[in-house]
From TrEMBL:
Coiled coil: none annotated. Its EC number is 2.1.1.-. Keywords: Activator, DNA damage, DNA repair, DNA-binding, Metal-binding, Methyltransferase, Transcription, Transcription regulation, Transferase, Zinc. GO terms for biological process: DNA alkylation repair; methylation. The gene is adaA_1. The keyword Cell membrane does not apply. This is Bifunctional transcriptional activator/DNA repair enzyme AdaA. InterPro entries: Ada-like_dom_sf, Ada_DNA_repair_Zn-bd, Homeodomain-like_sf, HTH_AraC, HTH_AraC-typ_CS, Me-P-triester_DNA_alkyl-Trfase. The keyword Cell membrane does not apply. It is an enzyme of class 2 (transferase). It comes from Clostridium luticellarii.
Amino acid sequence: MTLEEMWKAVSENNASYDGIFFYAVKSTGIYCRPSCKSKTPKRENVCFFNTAEQARAEGFRPCKRCRSDLLDYKPIKEIAEKVKRRLGDSFRKSCKLNRELRQLGISQRRMAEIFKGEYGITLSKYMSNLRLKEAKRLLSDTNDEIINIAYSVGFDRLSSFYRFFKNGTGLPPAAYRKECRK
């Protein structure tokens, strides 16, 4: 790889070159990944290294923004995974879920943007899918009463559950259960 190709990758913040090389800025004493979103340095202040260890050996310290010292730093992906885990763990109880999600320390709007960007689905649609999947499982695998199933998947009114289930499957819960047991 030529110096010009590396410079082009740095100036374009090209993430596909992360891990292939690192660049350091002489004027700041910091080394970064090619994808670092910090201000593009002057070309004459930049030097390139094949590894982070080489940059450190030359006296450069890791960037706090792109975390060039870590092998895999994807904070947005980590947030999306935390949200997904918490949704999976507590989708049945909306008050507990709201408390769990607030503990992540970001706004509801930002959380929704991150989740949709990472998984291509809204938070509410994902949660609805979890509830529908669990309701279908309970209807086909157990003899629980429909009202108990409705409560166990997070509904506080039976009519809401019936409407939700019929919209999701095309069948009312009792008819779905009957179809599964044929």
